[in-house]
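pls ignore typos typing on phone
adenosine-5'-triphosphate + seq
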Amino acid sequence: MNNEQNKIPQATAKRLPLYYRFINNLHHQGKLRVSSKELSDAVKVDSATIRRDFSYFGALGKKGYGYNVEYLLSFFRKTLDQDEVTKVALIGVGNLGTAFLHYNFMKNNNTKIEMAFDADPNKVGSEIGGVPVYHVDDLEDYLQNTAVAILTVPSTEAQGITERLVEAGVSGILNFTPARITVPDHIRVHHIDLSVELQSLVYFLKHYPLEEEEGE
Ligand code: ATP
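k done
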């Protein structure tokens, strides 16, 4: 992300990729403008928040007209550095890691898993979803100019691997292990614990059931 990002509150910045994906789809459909109501329905963010977010982007919606799709798209591309491909490495080619290697991230944004690492000699040397799998011992040799790593190793391995990633110059880690990892201040970690998310969804369903709107 470029420096313009600094002025945008973090909560807004987190919604950027969501907006980007939807606006990109609209652009592909040939739509020239979009209202905050349409956006709100599609991305499930209330329209007041959308208007506030978009004011940070310098996009001022006009009443009865909405927002200019072309303008938004070029803003998002610039801000999310969509013109540049971000190189990503994946560590741990188990069930989850393998699924990610098969998943086509490029469809929606310009990130690409370029290489994967594992400790299992049966996996090392293979290619999964077009991505080469190297031995984790050789991590430092391959990780040049790689900004981001996805961590799908067993949780016991997470901290040790993280330290090596940081040493090798990785600045962002998407941690799919249940382990809480410790990093220096300049490293950003986003933690996604799938079982916690699932449990939390089930909890909310039970305790905070959503009411159906009348007439729907
Ligand atoms: P998951 O479903 O969580 O991906 P799994 O059950 O397929 O996991 P795990 O035991 O969680 O397998 O291990 C994930 C992957 O991480 C395996 O392919 C394993 O060989 C690999 N792995 C284990 N230790 C290391 C390590 N130190 N460095 C790199 N890869 C490792």
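Residues 91-97, 117-120, 123, 136, 152-154, 157, 161 surround adenosine-5'-triphosphate (CB under 6 Å). Residues 3-78 form a domain with the Arc Repressor Mutant, subunit A fold (CATH 1.10.10.10). more later
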